[in-house]
Write a structure and sequence with these properties.
Elements lengths: L3 E6 L3 H11 L5 E7 L2 H10 L4 E4 L8 H11 L4 E6 L4 H9 L4 E4 L4 H12 L4 E2 L1 H7 L8 H8 L3 H11 L4 H8 L3 H15 L4 H10 L5
Parallel strand pairs: 1-2, 1-3, 3-4, 4-5, 5-6
Helix pairs in contact: 2-3, 8-11, 9-10
Length: 214
């Protein structure tokens, strides 16, 4: 069985030790290292085959936002899942814009953390529900018609982009829009082609940058 190779990044050794104990209980996860800041995380990624980085946000020397940017610039295929006690909208938006696959709080249950790691690894956006309300500004109006014209996206495709950014799976999107999963998959393929993007994470980043999420 192929395991997801994980690097833990946190400036508190006790937190790193606790996370290792939790994650090592799952047979499909392999914690291959732990470091204390973003710079160390980048160096570790350069010298090891890392699938996913579990990254704290507020750290001395190099925080999780900068660490995310550096790692994604080095190797965009490495998934980064932010894990922190701080529910801070600016940190959330910055981390997502730099390519983080999601954001969970440290008080999440072990099951939520495990499923978040798996979901992030397989290309989905993972957002804690309390975090999502911070990222998604419901009072903000967006000119979706202009976005549609600029990027040749249909209203249905704009809706799918928005729902992906909200962390919905294909099945959940199909239920929301009353369309088959096959239709949703085809639309996502078209969206990726039109925007010249590679995966769902990049679609979500596009949504945040263009303020499509509402």
């Amino acid at each position: 069985m192929s395991k997801i190779k994980i690097l833990i990044v946190d400036d508190e050794k006790l937190i790193r030790t606790g996370l290792k104990i939790i994650l090592k209980s799952h047979e499909d996860l392999d914690v291959i290292g732990d470091v204390s800041n973003g710079y160390e995380a980048l160096e570790f990624c350069k010298n090891n085959d890392v699938d996913l980085v579990l990254m704290d946000i507020r750290m001395d020397i190099c925080d999780g936002v900068l660490g995310t940017r550096l790692i994604k610039e080095y190797n965009d295929s490495i998934k980064i899942l932010i894990l922190t006690t701080f529910n801070d909208d600016k940190y959330i938006k910055d981390a997502i814009n730099f390519g983080a696959s999601g954001y969970l709080l440290k008080d999440s249950s072990d099951d939520v953390l495990y499923e978040g790691i798996r979901s992030s690894f397989y290309g989905n956006i993972v957002l804690d529900k309390s975090v999502a309300s911070k990222v998604i500004n419901k009072e903000q109006t967006v000119d979706t018609k202009s976005i549609s014209n600029t990027h040749n996206l249909s209203p249905k495709e704009i809706d799918i982009v928005r729902l992906i950014a909200n962390g919905l799976t294909n099945k959940e999107i199909s239920n929301e829009l009353f369309l088959s999963e096959g239709t949703i998959k085809n639309n996502i393929s078209n969206i990726l082609s039109k925007l010249d993007l590679r995966d769902r994470t990049q679609i979500a980043i596009f949504a945040f940058k263009n303020k499509i999420v509402t």
